[in-house]
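Figure-free illustration: sequence to structure, shown twice.
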Amino acid sequence: MDNVGKARTLAVLLPAALLGGAYVSQYGFGLFPCEMCWWQRYPHFAAIALGLVAFVAKPPRVWVALAGFAIITSGLIGGFHAGVEYHWWEGITACSKPQIGVDITDFAAAPLIRCDVAPWTLFGISLAGFNFLISTLGGAAVVALAAYRK
């Protein structure tokens, strides 16, 4: 397999694996996503689509590079989210601020998943932190393989 073929495959498999992990943690372990978690998923969906387009559209390097940039975008959102979870800076959404005036007797209301609390960590790294590490390093690899290697 040539470098473009490897990059196309990585551009599809990397975001698919990260989304798969997110859905396993959500439905298998009850770690429901907050608003910022969803923000990280959207670029991965786009990356999968762009990576698949790279298998059929010309020139494939352009589509793979776009997929790589989408993966990196998700990673950067994950880095911002991890910073909110670690309280390095404040979040920009309502899910990272204390809720005032919430009616706790309204059982029909959807539960608020906090953006500033990491529901799970491994070695002190949250899921958003792992997305940052994997997506930025892996996404950079996709872009490099697609754009710079002949």
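We now fold a second protein in the same way, so the two outputs can be compared directly.
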Amino acid sequence: MEEKIQAGLDQIRPVLQRDGGDIEFVEYTDDNIVKVRLKGHCAGCPGAMMTLKGIVEQILKESYPEIKGVEAVE
């Protein structure tokens, strides 16, 4: 599953990198939550949670229905 998540993040990454940000996979929990670390401009951006939920979570959940959510960690 982690390889699938990495592949999904690789598709999203160019969008974030255009704005000076990036995303790093941290872990996939037993309760089907994907934990990621936002980097660069994304780390302190006021719109980061909208990006996380509106883009990252939506794409990953559509691709892999077993994912229950995406959370950012420090």
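Summary for the second example: The chain has a mean pLDDT of 93.
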